[in-house]
C-alpha cells in the first residue's frame, strides 16, 4: 500500500455531501422498506453526481448480475466516464515531469486535443522522432487525491447501508468496496497496465489473426504510458463496410475469446466494438486493458468441465464443477444446488445449440449459485460480462454462427491440452515435491500431535499405549506415502515414456525409480509382517 492509500481522510468528512446527493435522488426513502427503493435512473444519476470514485464503483456494481435486478444492471451500464479534458498545459507539465525531458525532445509531434478524456486518464495522439505513430496516456493530476478522500467515506456508507437495510448484506457491499479500493489504485498505476499489455502480447503471440499494440520501453511511468497506435476501424463499422468479411471476423472473435478464457486464463473483460478494431490487413486488434480478468488453472479446468456438462444437460456434473472452483460457503448444499440447476440444464439441453448463449447460461448459473449460498468471484463476474459483450458482437457479425457448436469442437483439443506430456510431467514433479515434504514432516507431526493429546488431558501421566499408537501411526503414514510416491513415479514415468527426446529420458528415469521404490515398499512391508 502506498502513501496515498494510507493517507485517507476521516470517513465522515464527505458524508454530509453524500447524504445531500442521496436524499435528492430518493435513497433515504429506502429506510422505509423495499417498496421505496430508488429507481435505476436515480441510482445512476446519484453516482454520476458524486464523482469519479462513485462512478467507477457503479461500473463495478453493474457486474453483479447474480444479485441486482436487470433494470438496475442496464442503467448502471450506462454510466459514462467522459470528463472534461485536462488543459494541455497541465498535460505537458505532467509528461515532462514523469519522463524527465521536454516534450519536443520526446516526440516529433503531440496533438493538444485529446482523443478521449476518461476518469483516470486522457489520451493524446502523437508521433515519435523515428516516425512511429503513438498514443500517450496521461493520468489526471487530481485523481489519486480524490480517491484518497472519497474511498474512506464510501467504505463508511457501505457499512452503514448494510446495517440500515439488512437485505443489502447479500451484496457484501463492504467486501466489494474493499476489493474495489485495491483495483482502483492498481488502475491508477499505468506501469501495471503496461505489464498487463505485455502479458497479453505474450499469451496471444501464437494467434496470427490478432495484434496488440506494444508499450514503448523507456516511456512508461506511474503517470504516463506511451504505446503504439493501431491504425484501424471499429469492428462493427468495418463489418458494415465489408459484409463479405463478417463470417471470418465472427469466427476469429469467438476463437480468440475461447483461447483467452480456456487456454491462457488472461482475458479482456470489456471487448466492446470500441475496444476491438480491424487493421488494414484484416487482423483484429484489442485496445484498453483497464478491465481484465484472470482465471487460474483450477478454475479454467472446472469451467471447461462445467460448460461441457451444460451441453450434455447434466445438472449434477455442472454443480460439481461449479463447487470445485472453491466458492461454496460452509452451509451450501450441493444437492440443493444440483436440484435448482436441473430446470436450467433442461432448458439449455432442449434448445438447438445455435440458440444457446454461453453468456446467458453463465448469468443464470451465477444467479442460481447465489441463491444456494455460493459466492461468485470477481473473475467469474467479469467472464460473464465478457461473454455477453462478445456474443452481442457475434450476433451483429454473423447471427448464424453456432458458438456452442464451435465450443464443442474446440473443447476436446482444450481438454487434451490438460493431459499433454509436458503438463503431466510438470504436475508430476509438483506432486512429488509435495509428497516429499509430507514424507519428511508427516510422521513426526503425527507423533507429536498424539503425544500432546496423551499429555494434555492427563497432565504428566505417562501414556505408553498412546505413544505406541503414535509410533504405529507414523509407520503407517510412512508406508502410505511411500506407496503413493511409488505410484506417482510409475504414472509420471509411463506418461512421459510415450514421448520422445528429453521427455522420454526423464520418463524412463522416473519409471525406473518408481519400480525400485515399489520393491522397497513391498520388501519393507514383508519384513514388518515377519517381525510382528
What does this structure look like?
By secondary structure, the protein is an alpha+beta fold. It folds into 4 domains: 3-80 and 147-187, no CATH class; 84-139 and 189-229, Phosphorylase Kinase, domain 1, CATH 3.30.200; 231-418, no CATH class; 421-531, no CATH class. 61% of the residues lie in helices and 9% in strands. The protein contains 21 helices and 12 strands. The strands form 3 sheets. Strands 1, 2, 3, 4, 6 and 7 form a 6-stranded antiparallel β-sheet that branches. Strands 5-11-10-8 form a 4-stranded mixed β-sheet. It has a two-stranded antiparallel ribbon with strand order 9-12. Helix 13 crosses helix 18. Residues 1-8 and 457-474 have low confidence and may be disordered.
Which stretches of 5+ consecutive residues score pLDDT under 50? 1-8, 457-474
The proportion of residues forming helix, as a percent range, comes to 55-70%
For the record, give the distance between the C-alpha atoms at the N and C termini, rounded to a whole number. Answer: 61 Å
Taken as a percent bin, the fraction of beta residues is 5-15%
The total domain count is: 4
Q: Decide which structural class fits the backbone.
A: alpha+beta
Identify the overall geometry. globular
Describe this structure in a few short sentences.
With 532 residues, the chain is of the alpha+beta class. Helix content is 61%, strand content 9%. Strands 1, 2, 3, 4, 6 and 7 form a 6-stranded antiparallel beta sheet that branches.
Architecture blueprint of SSEs:
Blueprint: H1 3-6, H2 15-24, H3 40-50, H4 52-61, H5 70-76, H6 88-99, H7 103-106, E1 109-110, E2 116-117, E3 121-127, E4 133-139, H8 143-164, H9 173-187, H10 190-203, E5 210-211, E6 215-220, E7 224-228, E8 232-234, H11 235-241, H12 246-264, E9 266-268, E10 276-279, E11 284-286, E12 292-294, H13 297-312, H14 315-323, H15 334-350, H16 358-371, H17 378-397, H18 403-418, H19 421-456, H20 464-496, H21 502-531
Helix pairs in contact: 3-4, 3-5, 8-9, 12-17, 12-18, 13-14, 13-18, 14-15, 15-16, 16-17, 19-20, 20-21
